[in-house]
Design a protein that fits this description.
Number of domains: 1
Family: Belongs to the AHA1 family.
Number of helices: 3
CATH topology: Alpha-D-Glucose-1,6-Bisphosphate, Chain A, domain 4
CATH superfamily: START domain
Protein name: ATPase
Largest sheet: 7 strands, antiparallel
Organism: Candidatus Segetimicrobium genomatis
Distance between the termini: 39 Å
Order of helices and strands: EHHEEEEEEH
InterPro entries: ASHA1/2-like_C, START-like_dom_sf
Number of strands: 7
Strand order of the largest sheet: 1-7-6-5-4-3-2
Oligomer: single chain
CATH class: Alpha Beta
Helix content: 10-25%
Length: 160
């Protein structure tokens, strides 16, 4: 079994709108983490290239880019799966994020599973020397902060 973080929340939007804000507007709601930065200089400005095989990229202030991961599942309004790696991960180290969008009445339940943390060696800098449980708790906090802003972004949007 893989070590993972799982979070879920409901937002006041239909699944297509929630998917659109998640993928097309990630730069407006993504919150960097001091512990899990994409690179030493921060997270930059994240953006998805739509579709399976597309990339999650970040662009830094100096104009350089970094590929965080490739999209393996792109089902608008339903499901998104993509690889996630920080710049200090070697080529064979990567985690995976799965996001599901489920209608619940007039809302959408968004669930996020960030898995495969066990593929990152225990002594890797991304773990900051924390034991497994603490690493996962801090990764959950990282997602929770971003999802809080995501939920506010959806609530403040005129585009329904």
């Amino acid at each position: 079994m893989t070590s993972k973080v799982f979070l879920a929340l409901r937002v006041s939007a239909d699944p297509m709108r929630a998917f659109k804000v998640f993928t097309q507007e990630i730069a407006s709601w993504w919150q960097p983490s001091g512990l899990f930065r994409v690179s030493d200089t921060g997270d930059g400005r994240l953006a998805f290239e739509p579709g399976e095989g597309g990339r999650l990229l970040t662009t830094f202030e100096d104009g350089s880019t970094f590929e965080i991961g490739r999209i393996s599942v792109w089902e608008p309004g339903k499901r998104l799966v993509f690889a996630w790696r920080q710049a200090n991960f070697s080529a064979e180290h990567s985690t995976e994020v799965e996001v599901c969008f489920e209608p619940v009445g007039a809302e959408t339940r968004i669930s996020i599973e960030h898995r495969a943390w066990d593929t990152i060696p225990r002594r890797h800098a991304a773990r900051h020397g924390f034991p497994e449980e603490a690493t996962l708790q801090r990764a959950a906090d990282w997602w929770r902060n971003s999802l809080h802003v995501f939920k506010e972004r959806i609530a403040g949007s005129d585009d329904a």
